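Hey, can you fold this one?
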Amino acid sequence: MKRLSSTKYNANYLITMDDIVREGHPVLRSVTKPVQLPMTEEVRGTLQCMMQFLKNSQNQETAAKYKLRSGVGLSANQIGLQQRMFVLYLMDEKGNTLEHALVNPKMISHSVSMVYLPESEGCLSVDRPVEGFVPRYESVKVKGVNLSGEEVVLRFKGYPAIVVQHEMDHLDGIMFYDRINKENPFKLPRGVEIRSLYEEKD
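Sure. Predicted structure:
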C-alpha cells in the first residue's frame, strides 16, 4: 500500500502566493527543526517544489499567469513547514546562475566587512514596503546537505551572501527588519567596515 504523503508539496505541486505564509504567523517566529538524514523522497520533493516556485516567479509569463511575486530565496517555514532547509535561485555578480537547495545549513565563517542593500530588503512573506538598512556580512561560508544528500561547503559573496543570510535568519525565526536600527532605520553599526553593496570599493 502506498504511503500517503504528509505534505502537499511535491514535484507535481505548484506553489502560488496563497501558499506563502505572511508576517504575523507564528511559524515565521519559530526556530525550525533539523531535517532527519538521510533525507526522504518527501523532503527532496518539497525542495524541488520550492525551487520550481523560484524559477516560476522569475519567469515573466508564468509569474503573470499565476500572479507570483519574484523571489530569489525561499525557506521551508515560509510555506508553513518547520524544517531547517531553504532554496536559492539567482545570478551572481559575474552573471552565473546559482541554484542551491540546502538542508540543515550552518554558517561556519564570515567576513569582518559588511554590506547592505541601499533599497532595503524585500521578503515574500512581507506585503508592505519596509525602509531601512539591513547590515549583512559581505561574504559567508556555509555547510549543509544538498539535494543529492552530499555534505557541501559553499562560499557566497555580495548579493548571494545577503540572500543566504536572509534565508538562514528565517530558519531561526528572524525577519529581515529585526536587523534594522529601531531608532533610526538608516543608521549603520559603528566600528565595522560597512558599505552599500553597489558602492565601488576604493
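The CA atoms of residues 2 and 100 lie 30 Å apart. Let me know if you want another pass with a different chain boundary.
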